[in-house]
Design brief:
By secondary structure, the protein is α+β, with helices and mostly antiparallel strands. The chain has helices spanning 60-66, 82-96, 111-119, 135-138; strands spanning 11-13, 16-24, 35-42, 48-55, 69-73, 102-106, 123-129, 143-149, 166-169, 172-175. Helix content is 19%, strand content 32%. The strands form three sheets. It has a five-stranded antiparallel sheet with strand order 1-2-3-4-5, covered by helices on one side.
Length: 188
């Protein structure tokens, strides 16, 4: 039976919008799961500010090492909670594919990604060793933090819910001032 991709619909939170770039069919020979690839865009800014993908399946490679979601935000757009907001925007699509729990992994020294997982509602379960035959190990990585998101216990994402969060400033967490509207200088 062929894998069925769903139409994700509009994925928007204030000034952040996810646009489906393409889907990737599963490749059993390479061990790749089907995936949705999105670009992140910010209202009022010309061009892409980042990317996020959702991998469908529960293979050991996804659940233990790669995670269901991977993301990156261009350096000049970091510090606005775009990654955490984008992660939460993908939860309904993950639910449609019956993914639960959802896993996101990151390197232990990637404090921004770890904070993104926490803000998005993830729970750090463990830090695992990568096996020597894993692609990430071959590229020089050795460990992954595993964050679990129990989608049954998480309510639906309400755009704007991260207005009163903290952000990392140097090595400390600083409160973010609440705002009435999202704008290009938002600290969410």
């Amino acid at each position: 039976m062929a894998f069925v991709f769903f139409t994700p619909g509009t994925l928007r939170d204030g000034d952040l919008e996810l646009r489906l770039r393409h889907t990737a069919a599963p490749d059993d020979e390479l061990g790749w799961a089907p995936a949705y690839m999105f670009d992140m865009f910010r209202k009022g800014f010309e061009g892409r500010i980042g990317a996020i993908d959702l991998r469908i399946g529960n293979t050991p490679g996804i659940v233990l090492y790669g995670g269901h979601i991977g993301y990156s935000v261009n350096e000049e757009h970091r510090g606005h909670r775009y990654a955490a907001r984008a992660v939460r925007l993908l939860f309904p699509l993950a639910r449609r594919h019956e993914i639960n729990p959802l896993w996101i992994t990151c390197n232990p020294d990637n404090w921004a990604s770890r904070r993104t997982c926490e803000i998005a509602g993830g729970e750090l379960v463990e830090i695992v060793d990568l096996p020597p035959d894993n692609d990430m190990y071959i590229d020089g990585e050795r460990w992954k933090c595993r964050y679990r998101f129990n989608l049954d216990r998480m309510g639906d994402y309400t755009p704007g819910q991260f207005k009163n969060e903290c952000r990392i400033v140097g090595d400390i967490l600083a409160p973010v001032e609440p705002m009435d509207e999202y704008g290009p200088d938002s600290e969410i």
